[in-house]
Task: structure prediction
Amino acid sequence: MFSGIIADIGIISNVRNKDEGVSIDVKSIFSNDLSLGESVAHNGVCLTVTKCEKDYYTVHCVHETLSKTNLKNLQEKSKINLERSLLSSSRISGHFVQGHVDCTGECHQINNTIGNTFFRFKYPKKYQNLIFEKGSICINGVSLTISKIIDSELLFEVCIIPHTLLNSTFQFLKKGEQVNLEFDMVSKQINRSVNLLKH
Result:
């Protein structure tokens, strides 16, 4: 379980293709503190640490994960949002994030204003019932609040404050790039319950 508050921007040092997926080496400020088997969110994707070295650690992505997330686009020197799993004593400054990405979206528009940056994202129609204004969403592992929805174009907007911009890979995001989306777990459960009642 995670909260969507980024702890570090990691650097990919190696990507190795294997029959069962890819192994990824990641450099991070907390590499030395990790343990084998620990869960770390990578752009919002929960992955298990399989190897620990002094200045990097390794995780493995299976084909299922690669097919549903933007991790398939990673290469050497790529930057990635990282968050370690929550402790029971942690403050939850974002919202509960499982690290189970639902789909990818596309950065549709970036609008810089004084003090804030607005990002608009296009998303698949099947998830339209899971978003609402002022609701929570996780984008590339970052807990954010939806500020606007344009249903006719399947777009939603979030506002990024300067602190979040500088402490996440949003500072590098460009129009047309893929992002990982995890919708709020409460919305997903309510939507499922309502659909079951209809049947």
About this structure: The mean pLDDT is 94. Residues 185-198 form the longest helix (14 residues). Residues 103-194 form a domain with the Elongation Factor Tu (Ef-tu); domain 3 fold (CATH 2.40.30.20). The first strand starts at residue 8 and ends at 18.
